[in-house]
Design brief:
By secondary structure, the chain is an alpha+beta fold. The protein has a single domain, classed as Transferase(Phosphotransferase) domain 1 (Transferase(Phosphotransferase), domain 1, Orthogonal Bundle). It is about 35% helix and about 10% strand. It has helices spanning about 20-35, 65-75, 80-100, 155, 165-180, 190-195, 215-225, 235-240, 240-245, and strands at about 15, 45-50, 55-60, 100, 110-115, 120-125, 130, 145. Strand 5 (about 110-115) and strand 6 (about 120-125) form a beta hairpin. Helix 3 packs antiparallel against helix 5 and helix 5 packs antiparallel against helix 7 (about 215-225). It holds the Pfam family Pkinase.
């Protein structure tokens, strides 16, 4: 199933208002040293080295490409297959959050398949914008970081953000998987931001959502909740009917 003609299936770069390239790499090293060997759905850091001008990471080889590429190729996923992918991603997110890490740039371009097979492990990658934090630091993260279409309202508001931003991004990814287009795609960046701030999305056109269950839609709604305090947690999302069933 292909997305409506108005939808855009182009990659969008990540932004962060106060991180340079090498700083992002150092940040990624710090995060991956803490968690990369502990979960099968997180890209493993094998080694790293520094030259006069650059820092380099050596990671496990992910030969299966990006989730974004597969969505573009397929158009959309069957709900059971989408649930499998979200379940694996959620397991890794919950692990990160348990270790005090917020990713801040979850999107299909940063979810990689270990091998080209359809049932390959899905790996969270690109931790350049991630932060190691404690619960007490929730209001410290105020920089604008992420990829606009996947960023939570509180990031735009600069009122302080933390782990809940990853669940918002996961809601956007789930929506994208099930219909082949993103919920807040608009004609301008400003209109996109306003749509996000107001959670202005719908499950339309109906023909793209006719076969999608109410539990899947409810999962998306609970991720795309404006108030981060009322948004699902990683562990809470794992136990929903959408993610709890095995495909």
């Amino acid at each position: 199933m292909l997305p409506p003609p108005s939808s855009s299936l182009t990659t969008t770069p990540s932004v962060c208002s106060n991180l340079g390239g090498n700083e992002q790499v150092r940040n990624e090293i710090a995060v991956l040293r803490k968690v990369s060997m502990g979960h099968q759905n997180i890209l493993t850091l094998v080694d790293y080295f520094e030259t006069m001008n650059n820092l380099y990471l050596v990671t496990d080889l992910a030969l299966g490409g990006e989730l974004f590429e597969r969505i573009c190729r397929k158009g959309s996923y069957y709900e059971s297959d989408a649930a499998d992918l979200i379940r694996a991603t959620l397991s890794a997110i919950a692990y990160l959050h348990d270790h005090g890490i917020v990713h801040r740039d979850l999107k299909p371009e940063n979810l990689l398949f270990r091998t080209p097979e359809d049932n390959a492990d899905l790996l969270i990658a690109d931790f350049g914008l991630s932060r190691i934090m404690d619960e007490e630091q929730f209001h410290v993260l105020t920089t604008t970081c992420g990829t606009p279409g996947y960023m939570a309202p509180e990031i735009f508001k600069k009122t302080g953000h933390g782990k809940p931003v990853d669940l918002w991004a996961l809601g956007v990814i789930t929506y994208f998987l099930l219909c082949g287009y993103t919920p807040f795609d608009r004609d301008s960046d400003f209109e996109e931001m306003q749509a996000i701030l107001n959670a202005d999305y719908s499950f339309t056109p109906l023909e793209y959502w006719r076969g999608v269950s109410e539990s899947a839609k409810d999962f998306i709604r609970r991720c795309l909740t404006i108030d981060p305090g009322k948004r699902m947690t990683g562990h809470g999302a794992v136990s929903t009917s959408f993610c709890g069933r095995e495909g």
